[in-house]
Every structure is written in C-alpha cells, then in structure tokens.
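Sample 1 of the test manifest.
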Amino acid sequence: MSEGDQIPLSGSDELNYANMELDVQRERLDDLLIRFGRKGGPTEHGWHVWEPAFHCWLDFFDSRRKRSRQRETKALAIGTLVHEFLAMRYSSEKVLGLVNFLNQHGWEAEVSEALRLYNAYDAFYAPGDGLSSNKCKVVMVEQEMGRDRTPWGLPYTCRADLVCEAPNGYWIVDHKTSSSLTYEFTEGWRTDPAILGLLWCARGQSRDFFPKDLPIVGCVINGVIKTKVPQFQRITFSIDDRIVQAWVDMMVYKFRVEMSIAELKPVPNLKGCFGRYGRCRIYGECLGGTE
Ligand code: SF4
C-alpha cells in the first residue's frame, strides 16, 4: 500500500468503544501484565506524562502531585493488549499463556477483541510486510529508550514497538489501533509529538545502542482500524532533524519558560477538559458545576 492511500470506511461499520464500560472491580490491566512478566503500559516519563501541560497546567501539576496513573479505558486496554500480543509475536513467544492468565482475571471481552485485531493485523502485515525480509529485518522489539538529561531539564522516556534495519538505515515501527480513519490518523504522524519524541530519543542514543552505525531514517505506522471487518493503513515517512529540533524547542519553551510563570488556575479547553478518552480526571472538582 502506498503512502497516503485511503481506505473507504462506512460509518455503520465502526464499533463504538466509548459506550463500553470498564469493570472497575478487576485488577488493573497494567498491574496484571507486569505480574505476568510483561512491561505493561507506557514508560515512566513518556509523552503521556508531559502532554497535559500542553492543555492545562492545573491538570498537569495536579497529576504530578497525586502521581496519577493513566486512566483505564476500553479503547486503551484493547490497544495495550494488541501491542502486547504483537510484541510477543515479534519475539517468537506464544500468546496463549497470557490470554489464559488475563481471562482468569476477568478480561475476557477485551482479550477477545484484541485477539481479533491481532490476528487480522498479523494476517495482513506479516506475510508481505517487508519487515522480515533480507532487505529489512526486525532488530529490536519493545525497545525502551530515554534521556535523563534533556534541554528542558526533565527526563524523557519512550518505547519503540519495533526497530527495523533497512539498507538506508533504521526505521521505527509503531503499531496503531483506531476506531476510524480520521485525517489525524492518516496525515498527522509527521508532526505527532509522541512520534517526534521517539525519533529524538532514538537519534540521541550512543553509537553502540544500535547494531550498526546507520541513521534513524523515520517511522512506519502500521495501522489497524477497529471496524467489524478490520481495515488497514500503513503510513511511511522520513523526518529530518529540523522537525525533531522544533519538537525539542517546543519542549524547552513549555518546561523552561512557560512553566516558570504558569498559573495554577483552571483554563477550560476542549482537549484537556473533554479529551479523546473522556473528561479530565478532575473535571468534577474543577468545572463540574459549570455545565
Ligand atoms: S477540567 Fe479542564 S480546566 Fe480543569 S483541570 Fe481539567 S483540563 Fe484543566
């Protein structure tokens, strides 16, 4: 599939994860994954930790003070499980043990949906995905990277789903699940802060981190759309250092300049208050009375 291809998608095909409630009595998925020996969830100082500051300083400081954990949602749980199954598949591990373990702890519905997407992903991408051929091979799976010292004075960590070696250099591969093919999903990755943070970390590793002294060229997004019949979108792009530097400059301005004068008062905003995965954690105490 060439870059920028669009797959037609009928709206009635979409599964509505937003209406599916999570059972809060169960043990958290991340805790179970760690108990099973997996990494589980995002890295400690990843983009998800810093992102709230770009919407609302009050939310950011409150989550830092309370050491809030990422909110668990149905969509996030299924995405996490698809990632875990794919990581095991690319590491030649069997997923059955993890499936049984999670089913015993009440996660059958999410596991079943994640397996459906994982099997579809595997059938679509694996046979001709070019990631395991002579010209391009997977050299790292679920590889954590990070820098303690950053130009903005705060640690930064991330995890690459896959790192592939091609003749022209290394490519960072990210598995993505989405409920629909939005413009952001097909076009937004070149300026996505989490992706740019990954590239910045990868390009900043010491020379012996990667097997060969080759450049980090760019990213491959292997997308699966969570329709009843799953659909796929691969997006491949290289990113030059000026764009990655713009991301660094953005972080420096936010956390060195703006944070020093940030006011801890609510500033209602669409993305922070009513975000993609639901309302802000502290919406009730912050803005609850203003609806
Ligand atoms: S509800 Fe909105 S204004 Fe209040 S802390 Fe959350 S993001 Fe900020």
